[in-house]
Amino acid sequence: MKINSQRRDVFYVSDGTAITCETLGHVVLSQFSFIPDEKTFPFVDSTERAAEVFKEIEASYQHSGIKPLVFFSIVLPEVREMVCRAPAHNYDVLGNIVQKVQDDIQMAPQPQLQRSRSVGKDSESYFDRIAAVEYTLAHDDGITLKGLDEADIILLGVSRSGKTPTSLYMAMQFGLRVVNYPLIAEDLAAIRLLPEFEIHRHKLFGLTIAPERLSEIRENRLSGSDYASAKQCQLEVDTVEALFRREAIPYITTSSLSVEEITSRILERTGLKRSLFC
Amino acid sequence: MKINSQRRDVFYVSDGTAITCETLGHVVLSQFSFIPDEKTFPFVDSTERAAEVFKEIEASYQHSGIKPLVFFSIVLPEVREMVCRAPAHNYDVLGNIVQKVQDDIQMAPQPQLQRSRSVGKDSESYFDRIAAVEYTLAHDDGITLKGLDEADIILLGVSRSGKTPTSLYMAMQFGLRVVNYPLIAEDLAAIRLLPEFEIHRHKLFGLTIAPERLSEIRENRLSGSDYASAKQCQLEVDTVEALFRREAIPYITTSSLSVEEITSRILERTGLKRSLFC
Fold first, then answer.
1. Could you give the ipTM of this predicted complex?
2. Is A142 a known ligand-binding residue?
3. What's the CATH class of domain A120-270?
4. I want to staple A117 with a disulfide (CB 3.0 to 4.6 A). Which of A57, B53, B197, B260 is the partner?
5. Rg for chain B, CA atoms, rounded
6. Running along chain A, 278 residues long, what does each successive block of 10 average in pLDDT?
């Protein structure tokens, strides 16, 4: 049976979590116009598991008459070969680059199962990561301002400017200890920096957002409220941006950015160390 | 000047967040024994930015006499070419695969700046993601058991078994709504499932952990406490695992697993849809 060629089955197969395969595959697929039907097989580290994957790929091909795409990352040769014998277009997301690095620097790789995200040998940095998530949770939305000495960065912004998701992403992916503090509507007339922040001025970073976008986001939460009104959003954004400028606090506009983009831009502006956990 | 060849400068250069470059680069480097000195250049989307990166790469080479490694992902040809003219070993993390997909499926790619993580056109799924993070935060550590209907999964486990970081990772990276509920020491004698969970039985999933590892993690937090003692940890783990078995709740052991691995294994066991946000 022929199926609409605008759709195509895509498989991610890895002997680890498959997250690297998915990450890379998504970026590759974003450049093509077909609609992918995706399926992920993590922890394929035996010929038994590989045989199951082989059957699934084969079934996809028999069902659609179209070869699926397979993005894979598998260290064990016998497992890899079994997956690659299935009727599909295969893409080794790492293999070619590892080979090229080996040739370029004349150093033999030491292939190991994809355990880059495992705790194992790097237990200390793993504890650091968990501690960063806990610190950030405890300092979300101004819950407490104790322990600011330990903060890597303090995010300021109006409600719904993206502080919480950005803070958690920075903690989870980069192991940073993030405080976030809301600049509240009622304070606007007398808006100023809290005295607690004075000695941590160098850690302050502002998030702002286009008033129209802010209104849209708040409407999504509290439709028809004053809180979501164009006027209120405009007032809050104007006031907060004036504060950022007056106090020389660096800031960025989050309007159409994802948490990954916001985080990347903050790290770039502040020079905070990027140490991605993966 | 020659520098210890056990170290080598590594650059990640992208016209987007560079997170894909870093992710792939880390996995590649994990297979080699040298120590990388890493630096990331995100948002390199103009020849001006490319010229800055060129200078940094050149300076690295002149300083060390060793060609650095450059993992890059850049769509604009003139930007890419400028980066690639620097004295380095270059690895295009996407280019070869995009070309190969094009050849295999006979479809021209539509190169675009690396905006796969941008909000833009896919605003709805972005709201879903933020909503998942907020739901998960609101349901962390048993804060509330309201709204369980909306939960994708309910994680159960003793204190320090990894529930909170796993929940937040599942929400942030896969857009899942996660409840986590602690099985508390004082409840152990009379441990049973809360009535609130009865109609959501199919969503329950247990996390457990080796008692020695649990004790180590708790010692790290409250050294010398009863809470961290080997005896207490053993008791809690035994009791909770007996509950999981008695109630036929699927569970995994988190002891030496990262949040990525725990998440991947849970998704595999439950069949929850994997839709990685990136």
1. 0.89
2. no
3. alpha beta
4. B260
5. 24
6. 71 95 92 93 96 98 96 94 97 91 92 53 75 96 95 96 96 96 75 89 97 93 93 94 94 93 95 84
